[in-house]
Amino acid sequence: MKKIITGVVLLGIAGAAASPFLIGSQIESVTQEQAELTNQQLQQSLNSNPYLTDGSFTVESYEKSYAKSTAKSLLRLETILPGENGEPLVLEIPVTSEITHGPYLGESGFGLARVISRPDIAVMDVPEFIKADTFTVEDIISFSGQMNETITVAPITYDDGAGVFELGGITAEIVTSLDNRLSFKGDIAVADIKTSVTGKGSDGAFHLKPFTITMQGKGDSATTSGDYQFESGAISGESDKGMTLAIEQLSAKGTYKAAENINLSLGEQEIVLTNVEINDPATFPDPVMVPEFKVKTLIDEGDQETLNIKANYSATLSPGLMTAFQSPVNVKTVEIDFGMTSLPTAALQAYME
User: Fold this and answer.
1) Minimum mean pLDDT among 121-130, 157-166, 261-270, 307-316: which range?
2) 259 vs 51, 147, 156, 264, 297, CA distance in Å?
3) What is the pTM of this model?
4) 147 HSE (CA, 13 A, CB side)
5) What InterPro entries does its record include (predicted)?
6) I want to staple 233 with a disulfide (CB 3.0 to 4.6 A). Which of 118, 127, 212, 343 is the partner?
7) Helix H segments across the chain?
8) Are 79 and 51 in contact (CB under 8 A)?
9) Higher-confidence residue: 214 or 124?
């Protein structure tokens, strides 16, 4: 009996000791699968972006050890923008991911592994204000496949001699899954943003105060379809000359799906600004208010391989706005419709290519 118990204990110890390496093998497979999924989604989105002509995301190396591994990947984007030599600009962004596989237990939580990814700034030609820790993505992967992701943009200060831009930082906390990144929930916190302009005739300085954004989406990675919703908290700012800006809420929602006859996303989109107020005593005698400003767009497929594109712009205005623009008429609401129907998908595809 003692031998059996001893054998069971030894097997348990061996299993516990081997688990980081075995989990490391799982994470290596997950890394390759996620790279392939990212590359597929990148390829699907290329033709819907007029500035990109090609792109890829590949894992170039994966060094696995007992409890930690390092993956090196490359994001490559070919654009239509002119480069320094007049040729189209090609962006190559190397990314290094440091992977701790365990089971992992740390301040960020418990899971199958912890992955910290950063662009490899040392081999890139970037401005001096971009540091090695400016952009960081941390993923905690659970045993069930859930992924808790934290995206961090560290504080940035940029001074070009004519003005200064300061960003206090951005943090995004997102909960999603390995098998379907298009379904997610998350929160974004944006710290102070400050700008200042020097020189004669400058507009001085402006300070946008911290604000938050909540977001969620439900989608299907296999079909690249779904819906999303974003809502901000109150947004406010002020200049050093007494002008103030306040927005009660900025919201966006929409649906998307892949078109059948063209590499383009279809769906409805809506962006709404609620209760925008500008106070600038030096320019306007009364506060300028826009209770609501809304933009709605729709792209859908028509008959015989065609597309229909519609847009609607609407706003509810205030008397103060009419006074500011010295309008002889008190306009209360404005609405503009725009549309194009039966656009041949073949012609649009040729234009995008």
Assistant:
1) 121-130
2) 20, 29, 39, 6, 16
3) 0.81
4) 22
5) DUF945
6) 212
7) 2-46, 319-324, 345-352
8) yes
9) 214
Query: Is residue 184, in this structure, part of any structural domain at all?
Result: no
Cα diameter, the chain: 100
Residue 307 located in a structural domain = yes
Pairwise CA distance, residues 342 & 348, whole Å: 11
Q: Per-residue pLDDT tens for 225-244?
A: 899 999 999 999 999 888 99
Taking a C-beta distance cutoff of 8 angstroms, is the pair 54, 78 a contact? yes
Q: Which helix (H) or strand (E) holds 140?
A: strand 135-141
Per the CB < 8 A criterion, the answer to whether 252 and 274 are in contact is: no
Residue 298, domain member (yes or no): yes
Query: Which residue, of 115, 145, 175, is where some domain finishes?
Result: 145
Count of domains forming the chain: 2
Token digits for 122? 């040392």
Question: Domain boundary at 113, 145, 177, which?
Answer: 145
Tens digits of per-residue pLDDT, 115-139?
888 888 877 777 788 888 888 988 8
Q: Is residue 222 part of a domain?
A: no
Q: Please give the residue range of the domain that contains residue 131.
A: 19-145
